């Protein structure tokens, strides 16, 4: 039988954002993203977005911890997007983000997108 761990009972605790319930991310937005994930997704129970909200919180916390370690290695006190990119590249469980991080790195410093990337996906 599964034992209670670090994250068990997460649906019982209160949120930190002042909103009601155990979530701190907007459930309506999560539900909208879930519905956009595929044509087959029609009905979503009330509990599912709450679980996704907590999963997103845990994901953000873990990625932030690993990014912060990179920041400290650079002897800085401000976390930058390059720290996040380094954490993604250095961690196997974040391999699904590597292409997104490398796309972000290909953008120039002034925030513009190279010409060939602008035409991709535009209608």
Reported for the largest beta sheet, the result is: none
Strand segment tally: 0
Structural class determined from secondary elements: mainly alpha
How large, in whole angstroms, is the Cα Rg? 18 Å
C-alpha geometry = elongated
Spans with pLDDT under 50 lasting ≥5 residues?
A: 1-8, 10-19, 113-123
| Mean pLDDT reading | 78
Helix content: 40-55%
Q: How would you spell out the order of helices and strands?
A: HHHHH
Strand content is under 5%
Oligomer: single chain
Number of helices: 5
Alpha carbon gap, first and last residue: 53 Å
Compose a concise summary of this entry.
By secondary structure, the protein is an all-alpha fold. It is built from 5 helices and no strands.
Care to describe what's here?
- Helix 3 (about 80-90) packs antiparallel against helix 4.
- The chain is built from five helices and no strands.
- By secondary structure, the protein is mostly helical.
- The chain is elongated.
